[in-house]
Amino acid sequence: MWKSSNQKNGYMVVTGHFIDSDWKLQKRVLNFFHMPPPHSGVIVVDALQKCFIELGIEDKVFTITVDNAKYNDVALRILKDNFTLKKKLCFGGRIFHVHCCAHIINLLVQDGIKEVKGIVDIVREGVKYLITSDSRMIQFSDIAKQLQLSSKKLILDCPTLWNSTYMMLATTLEFREVFPRYQDRDPGFIYVPSVEDWVKVEHVCDFLGTFNVVTNITLRTEYPTANLFLSELWRIKVILNEKFVDDNEFIRAMASMMKAKFDKYWSECNLLMAIVAVLDPRYKMIIVNYCFLDIYPEAEANRNIATVKQALYEIYNDRTVDTIQPSKSDLDIYLDESAFICAEGSANKFNIMEWWKVNTLKFCILSKMARKILSIPITSVASKSTFSVGGRVIDPYHASQLPETVQVLICGVDWVRALHGLMKGSEQEKPSHVEYDLP
Predict the structure, then answer these.
(1) In this structure, are residues 167 and 158 in contact, taking their beta carbons and an 8 Å threshold?
(2) Structural domain span for residue 21
(3) Backbone phi, then psi, for 338, in 5-degree steps?
């Protein structure tokens, strides 16, 4: 849901994701329309169904990715029931509702950051104090130069975005020796963390570094990332388990808060993440077996592994109803073959889309399933990036237009960009924080 800068108008964006015949990931703004309050689940689902019917895609919707707003949960539950009645859902609808992974990670880490809120507030206010005056920045910079520090910028975060808070803390940490020295020259500067506080900041940055890497991976929008997320989910689980028994009490408290949120959203088997991971030829069932046994208790892990296999075959069989199947299916052959091994030094350059494009004839039916599954976005952030208006707020120019005009402008720009191959350039988002260079 988007809001205009004057907060009077609400808008909903519906973005379609698909993989074209050349195995390129595509996304299009299907509609961008005015949503008057209240934004209840019933109103949202009515708007979605109207959009699907107008576009003639009501029988082509495979999954829907949304953030975790309550009205979205209600809307998706109603929509799922409606689709179930028409028998249009795959695997009983268990992969229909996709929770935005980036949003869950944000909620998870924000809970952890609450444990060190006092320190974060001191650092944030200190940065604010410095950046509001050129003379303060010059004096602060002079001290940094005297100490021969290589860092040359301060960062002010957006408090609601944890990764920007992480960047602010990590950058400010490099100036820990500058803060008390600057206070000696400016008694009005009262935002100096104690030695113990700086140690905590160091531990927090070390802790959150893993989450920053995971977020950067999942937010890339130019190609699918869902196949990578199961291993990242495992990485999060491992770091939470480690920090849950850390020697530092405040780190244990952070980990406890974050672990509770993790278990709330990911304690149950996430079928979609597992299925997409299996369709990565480098991993297949190997990664599911390994990660599940680490994430869940053994008995539960074995049940979940069996569920993943069942889901794979049910989704595959949905695509073979009208075809004569050989004794051994595409899926059987794919799973039985050894995992694909990248050439030495090329693992980071592996392109899952290119692999499936090359192997389409070998796996005629399975490749159709892969094209469908790999197009599923695991984050709704990609929808925000389409408009280059920075976040979910419509800029003053668009806000001054009639809702119908805004709809035409937003949809039209996206379609023209796609027509002329300018989609990649449109996905440059504004940073989540503000950087200030030292003089």
Answers:
(1) no
(2) 1-100+382-439
(3) -65, 155
Q: Count CA within 13 A, CB hemisphere, residue 27.
A: 25
The set of residues, in sequence order, having a beta carbon less than 8 Å from that of 86 and lying 6+ positions away, is 59
Give me the sign of the Cα torsion angle 259, 168, 100, 271. Answer: negative
Could you give the residue ranges of the DSSP H alpha helices within 86-116?
101-113
Nearest to 192 by CA among 168, 208, 163, 172: 172
The values of phi and psi at residue 11, to 5°, are -135, 150
Task: Tell me if residue 370 falls in helix, strand or coil.
Answer: helix
CA-nearest of 108, 109, 110, 153 to 130 is 153
Mean pLDDT (the chain) is 85
Tens of pLDDT, residues 11-60: 888 999 999 999 998 888 898 888 777 778 899 999 999 999 999 998 88
- Within a domain: 298: no
The Cα 370–Cα 367 span in angstroms is: 5
What burial letters (b/e) apply to 219-254, b meaning 16+ CB within 10 Å? Answer: bebeebbbbbbbbbbbbbbebbeebeeeeeeebebb
Residue 219 CB partners (closer than 8 Å, separation 6+)? 102, 379, 381
CATH classification of the domain holding 424: 3.30.420
Q: Is the pLDDT of residue 7 over 90?
A: no
Asked if residue 166 is part of any domain, the answer here is no
Q: How far apart are the first and last CA of the chain?
A: 40
Model confidence, pTM: 0.82
Question: What's the maximum distance between 2 C-alpha atoms anywhere in the chain?
Answer: 82
Query: Any residues with CB less than 8 A from the CB of 87 and at least 6 apart, and which?
Result: none
Residue 420 counted as domain residue: yes
Looking up tokens 């960009």 gives 417
User: How many domains, the chain?
Assistant: 1
Question: What is the token pair recorded at 173?
Answer: 């940490």
Tell me which residue of 233, 289, 219, 227 sits closest to 266, measured CA to CA: 233
* CA distance to 42, 68, 80, 270, 314, per residue, from 96 (Å): 18, 14, 7, 12, 14
Answer for the pair 438, 144: CB distance below 8 angstroms, yes or no.
yes
The verdict on residue 106 lying in a domain is: no
| Closest-CA residue to 149 (of 185, 176, 183, 184) | 176
- Running DSSP on this structure, what letter comes out for residue 141? H
- Beta partners for residue 98, in sequence order: 65
Question: Which phi and psi (to 5°) does residue 390 adopt?
Answer: 70, 90
